[in-house]
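Practice problem: HAT C-terminal dimerisation domain-containing protein
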Amino acid sequence: MDHADSLSKTRVKAIIEGRNFWSDLKILAFVLDLLHKAILALEARKVTLADCFLSFKFYLQKQNALYSQLRKYKDKEAPFDLEFATGYEEPINWWNLIDTSPDPDSLPRIARHLFSICPNSASCERGFLV
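Answer key — structure tokens:
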């Protein structure tokens, strides 16, 4: 089977300019960075394979906590069922009230980070147009 047409310059350009390419690349870089650190630590004999497994398990637990929090937020379940009321003029104040204990505060942390971005200082201001 000839794959010459599947990787043409036009096709590659379309992939790179695609909406999800850079976010997918960032996720891949994160995963590969974890693997790279684990390999370096194993080669230096600073850790055992069990240590690497425990480290990956920790990241997996954080990822699962985020998925769980996203589902709860979507379904308006506790702790994301707080009413937005007067006195919380800014959405960031509402997010500061969310307590996800004993799980990590993954979703509230992401929300607070996003609300701290000043739209006119972003590299691509048009992304904030509604």
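Discussion: The mean pLDDT is 76. Students who identified this feature from the tokens alone can consider the problem solved.
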